[in-house]
Amino acid sequence: MNRPNIWSEQEEILFEDNHLLILNKPAGILVQGDNTGDEPLSVKAAEYLRFKYKKPGAAFVGVAHRLDRPVSGVVAMAKTSKALSRLNEMFRDNKVHKTYWALVGKCPEVISGHLTHWLVKDPIRNVTKAYSERHGQGLKADLDYQVLGPAGNRFLIQVNPITGRPHQIRVQLATGLGTPIVGDVKYGFLSPLPDVSIALHARQLEFEHPVTKEAMCFRAPVPDMPHWEASKAFYTV
Question: One of 17, 34, 38, 68 is an active-site residue; which one?
Answer without folding.
Answer: 68
